[in-house]
Design a protein that fits this description.
The chain is an alpha+beta fold. It has two domains: 24-178 and 232-321, BirA Bifunctional Protein, domain 2 (2-Layer Sandwich); 334-425, Anticodon-binding domain (Rossmann fold), CATH 3.40.50. It is 38% helix and 21% strand. It has 16 helices and 16 strands. It has an eight-stranded mixed β-sheet, sandwiched between helices. Strands 13-12-14-15-16 form a five-stranded mixed β-sheet, with helices on both faces. Strands 2-4-3 form a three-stranded antiparallel β-sheet. Strand 3 and strand 4 (82-85) form a beta hairpin. Helix 5 packs parallel to helix 10 (234-250). It is globular and about 80 Å long. 36% of the residues are buried. The structure holds histidyl-adenosine monophosphate. The site of histidyl-adenosine monophosphate has 27 residues, from strand 6, strand 10, strand 11 and helix 12.
Length: 426
């Protein structure tokens, strides 16, 4: 090659997003916020291999799933072993829990992870071949309160980022004592319908998946299809109603979607998906559920488990759709604005009091005037702004403004900290 010949440029593989500065800051902020919600509920970090023995996913995720049958990055390493880039995190966590005997210690084992996963899907907006998740798994205790906790952690993670345009869909897929019978009932129903060959085949291998068919001509025929929720065993029904009661008590809103179909085979009982309406076709920003047979399936004890995987890429897109910059939101809890040096002399020690009380506080420094100071407050992403001007100084008060609803009131200086804490907790 001569020096004048230009080499072709190399691009990232198809369907693989890069996150580069300055926009990568949003990606990091989202990943950290989800991880923080998990830490807050006692989930410890677990760091797992990016590739595993192929058998782990074939056995754990299920041979009949698209993920295993069509989407895995599987190759032989130089030693002739079949390895696979991890398409999801749950099977790997379970493998590590069994291998390290964590299931012999304190239960539930509560672990959270973050990183890339690989699926050979058809790339489109929000659907990538290298996707990023933060996930949590709680293994070893079948308690509906734990299902509610896992769901509430995801809900809190989204809310802590300021997201509001999402819904939680919930259902129960039953267990071994009721699903086989239901499956047969559904298969019988499907065999009486006018379906094409490919759909008939799907009905034979995994009839539940047919319920998710989006084509109007199929949907119309499915209107009277039997639903798992109507055929739960007493134990599964009770479990589900208890999960719902715990969610109600936690103030986590949900919709029941009895036709939900998940792409992985290990789910039992509680199953859920978080859906964002601003994302078009790839609207699932997170999903998960209970997987009570998985540990035994992988050669371990017969222990239960529940968890979720949140899509970091899609959560970043959801924030963009809502016009929220996660690098700004939540940097501080309180932002102070003082008009004049006498007011500043009161504000500075007040800020110190906030910080000693564990409330993140900042203020407008320098003399930028009212407009500049309020702009700085906006940029900080603060939840509460407090303003001390001449009138407030004379009255011994500060104006406290709740940025969520714009409401503001004068509050006596000696009760400002308590008042603000009330707003932050509420
Ligand atoms: P999943 O529903 O397959 O569940 O994936 C979880 C989330 O990852 C999805 O809701 C979505 O936000 C994101 N995601 C999946 N595929 C893609 C893709 N191709 N491009 C972008 N984002 C994607 C699991 O993986 C389970 N392991 C979750 C779980 C944990 N269940 C129990 N414990």
């Amino acid at each position: 090659m001569t020096g004048s010949q230009k080499k072709s440029t190399i691009k990232a593989p198809k369907g693989v997003p890069d996150y580069v500065p300055p926009t990568s800051a949003a990606f990091v902020a989202v990943r950290d916020a989800i991880t923080a919600a998990a830490r807050n509920a006692g989930y410890g970090h677990i760091e797992l291999p990016i590739f595993e023995d192929t058998t782990l996913f074939a056995r754990g995720v299920g041979e009949s799933t698209d993920v295993v049958s069509k989407e895995m990055y599987t190759f032989e390493d130089r030693g002739g072993r079949s390895v696979t880039l991890r398409p999801e995190g749950t099977a790997g966590v379970m493998r590590a829990v069994i291998e390290h005997g964590l299931d012999r210690g304190q239960l539930p084992v509560k672990a959270s992870y973050a990183g890339p996963f690989f699926r050979y899907e058809r790339p489109q907006a929000g659907r990538y071949r290298q996707l990023q998740q933060v996930g949590i798994e709680a293994i070893g205790v079948d308690d509906p309160a734990l299902d509610a906790e896992v769901i509430a952690v995801a809900d809190q993670a989204f809310r802590s980022l300021g997201l509001t345009g999402f819904r939680l869909e919930l259902t129960s897929l039953g267990d071994d004592s009721c699903r086989p019978e239901y499956r047969q009932r559904l298969q019988e129903f499907l065999s009486g319908l006018d379906l094409d060959e490919a759909t008939r085949e799907r009905a034979r291998i995994n009839p539940l998946r047919v319920l998710d068919d989006k084509r109007p001509e199929v949907r119309a025929q499915l209107e009277n299809a039997p639903l798992m929720l109507d055929h739960l065993s007493d134990e599964s029904a009770e479990h589900f109603s208890s999960v719902r009661a715990h969610l109600d008590a936690l103030g986590v809103a949900y919709e029941i979607n009895p036709r939900m179909v998940r792409g992985l085979d290990y789910y039992t009982k509680t199953t859920f998906e978080f859906v964002h309406d601003g994302l078009g076709a790839q609207s699932g920003i997170g999903g998960g559920g209970r997987y009570d047979g998985l540990m035994a399936q992988l050669g371990g004890q017969d222990l239960s488990g529940i968890g979720f995987g949140i899509g970091v890429d899609r959560t970043v897109l959801a924030l963009e759709a809502e016009g929220i910059d996660p690098t700004v939101t939540g940097r501080v809890d309180v932002f102070g604005v003082a008009l004049g040096s006498a007011a500043k002399a009161v504000l500075v020690p007040l800020l110190g009091q906030f910080r000693r009380d564990g409330i993140r506080a900042d203020m407008a420094y320098g003399d930028r005037g009212l407009k500049g100071a309020f702009k700085a407050a906006d940029r900080s992403g603060t939840s509460v702004t407090i303003v001390i001007g001449e009138d407030e100084l004379a009255a011994g008060t500060a104006v406290v403004k709740n940025m969520a609803d714009g409401e503001q009131h004068p509050v006596p200086l000696d009760s400002v900290v308590d008042h603000v804490r009330g707003l932050l907790d509420g």
